[in-house]
Amino acid sequence: MAFVSPTKRDQNGSYTFSSRPRPVEDRSKYREPPSEQTQSNYGNIMYDRRVVRGNTYAQQIIPTTALPDPVEVQRQQEIRRRTVATKRAREQCRTRTPEALQGRKHIDVQTDLYLEELSDVIVASDIECQTDAFLDKPATPLFIPAKSGKDVETQIEEGELFDFDREVQALLEVLVGKTVEQSLEEVMEEEELAGLRAQQRAFRELRNNELEEVLRLKEQERRSSKEKERRIAQQKEVLRKEREVAEKIAARAFTQQYLADLLPAVFTSLRSHGYFYDPVEKDIETNFFPWLMAEVNNSLEKRYTARALLDTIIDDVAWKRQEAFKDTQ
Amino acid sequence: MAGSPYDPSRAPVAYGRRAVPQLFSELQQQEAPRRLRALASLCDLLRDPERISCTVSGGSLEQLKVLLKDEDSIVRAKTCELLHLLTAHRIGRQALLSSSFLPHLSELMDDSSSSCRRNVQRVLNRLTLMPAGAEALLTLVPKLMLKLREEEEEEEEDVQVLLLSTLSSCSCLDPLPALASDGVSLLLHKLSDSSTDIRREATAALMALSVCEEGMRQVCEEEVLPVLVDLLRDKDVEVQANAAGVIMYAAIINEGKRQCLDLDVIPILLSLVSQDGEEEKDKERKKALVMYSLRALTALAEAPQGRCLLLEQLSLLGRRSEAAEEDQDIRRNAQNAVRVITWTPCNTGDL
């Protein structure tokens, strides 16, 4: 059967049913398997065996006792059977009216003095009853069910459901822990850097110390080597000067000795080169003789030219004579 | 705490291995607030060296280069802060150097936002913890000096301190670039600053510069020594130590010796060396000061006038050179000083 909610509201909302009216469903003879959920088939109420038919006035009330005694049941069955049997026997032995003759019919007739109308209609009288107008329903008394079972009480004390301190501990741990962790990291970082710088500073101090020593010694060395060089240079200078002076002296002596017989040698050489000369002689030599020689050359030239001319003439004549001779031959 | 949904300034963080890659992909979003939140979460996460090594090996540092050129100045400053955290560990420093971040960082030094500039200086300062980093920064030294000159007008003390510290670390490796950019005169100006930190860093940088001959010469020429002699009486021990260091280097060359003797520096140095009744912890801090003063006295003892003066005070140094002195370095220095003071030409051995 379909499950319907017990408190289904009507469409216009006027009623609430605790159990909504529903059509009676057809039920088969045999129970259906329980797992199957059947659709509600609404059966015809007219053909439903469970509905009581006819007059209910004379119906027997079903005994309320559940299972009757089997002996009792058997006895009752016996009684029923006996009554049925006796009735049947009586029926058979009873004389009946003979059948009507052909074309005639038996009819029941009233033979009383006063005729009575027999009808199926049962005289019924209507009686109405009306309840009083609705009174206000008095307040339902408080329904206190009968006490059954054990009494158990429970009460939540303050602080049982939620203990602030306990709850907050976890949160605080995380918050404070993370903050402290972060700050520890940062502090370690800074310490590391500070340690690095301190180490560098210590190293720098020692380095400066040693470096200064090195530079000072280097400078000292430089100074002393410069001093040495200067002294050596000075000494060299002295030696050089001495040498120079010695050379100068030697040169002076040599020159003196060399120039001792310079003068006569000079005069001799000059004289031998002809720088002391007789001007007249020189004049004759430089002026007169060239002119003389030039004149002599000129005249000789003339003679040569004349001789050459003569040669050509003679040659010419000889040639002509030869030709003439050849001609005559 | 990073990753909590109730912190509006941080982006939510994925679990475990996905945390950093997811935040990096968040960095590529268009809206600046989201990028800022992702950067804030990354700053919290990347303090852990393991995460840094994952990031570096994953090669997501290129994205940070893009972010360095972002329009929003807060994003740029946050990115520099992130790089600052990366440089706290060696892996991060190496990664920064090998991925050639230096050109971008040097551009950012001229940024308009001061927090960005400060963070960039912090990054550069941390990079000098590595020798390779200091070497790479040598090319940036002229620009750093320029910045130092400019920062004077803006009076940002911590940026100046950072710049000076970076400069001194770089100059320890090679002082020539800084000397070429006229470093000595700039540092001379800083020596008379009112802040102790600036004085300390300036004297340290000057000491690094005066290691080479050119530096010694410039220190003597630019009249730095009178200021240094004043600083020998400073309240802070480190400033005194660094000033003594510069004097010790400058006194190596003849010009320096002459100037020091003119300034009458020997009594001051002697008073620094002979402090009695010190406590243990003071001794530790003053070790450098005593060492440098002894060395300066040694250098000055090579000059005749210096030697005359010091021969009178020999007993003082003798005390320091005895076995009673626990510190081996100081003892050695003092013995060395005594040897140089008592040298005469007829002694055997070298000059």
Automatic annotation (TrEMBL), chain A:
Q: Does the keyword Coiled coil apply?
A: yes
> What does the UniProt entry say about where the protein is found?
Cytoplasm, Cytoskeleton, Flagellum axoneme
Q: Which Pfam families match?
A: Radial_spoke_3 (PF06098)
Principal subcellular localization: cytoplasm
Entry keyword Chaperone: no
Q: Where is this region: Disordered?
A: 1-43
Coiled-coil region(s): 208-245
Basic and acidic residues bias locations: 22-34
- Top-level taxon of origin: Eukaryota
List the keywords (alphabetical).
Cell projection, Cilium, Coiled coil, Cytoplasm, Cytoskeleton, Flagellum, Phosphoprotein
Family affiliation: Belongs to the flagellar radial spoke RSP3 family.
Xref: PANTHER family: FLAGELLAR RADIAL SPOKE PROTEIN 3, RADIAL SPOKE HEAD PROTEIN 3 HOMOLOG
The protein's name is Radial spoke head protein 3 homolog
Can you name the source organism? Pagothenia borchgrevinki (Bald rockcod)
Q: What is the lineage of its organism?
A: Eukaryota, Metazoa, Chordata, Craniata, Vertebrata
Automatic annotation (TrEMBL), chain B:
Originating species? Pagothenia borchgrevinki (Bald rockcod)
The record ties this protein, via PANTHER family, to: RADIAL SPOKE HEAD 14 HOMOLOG (PTHR15599:SF1), RTDR1 (PTHR15599)
Q: Where is the Dynein axonemal assembly factor 5 TPR repeats domain?
A: 93-262
Q: Which InterPro entries match?
A: ARM-like, ARM-type_fold, Armadillo, RSP14, TPR_DAAF5
SMART domains recorded: ARM
What's the protein called, per UniProt? Dynein axonemal assembly factor 5 TPR repeats domain-containing protein
Q: Output the Pfam families linked to this UniProt entry.
A: TPR_DNAAF5 (PF25757)
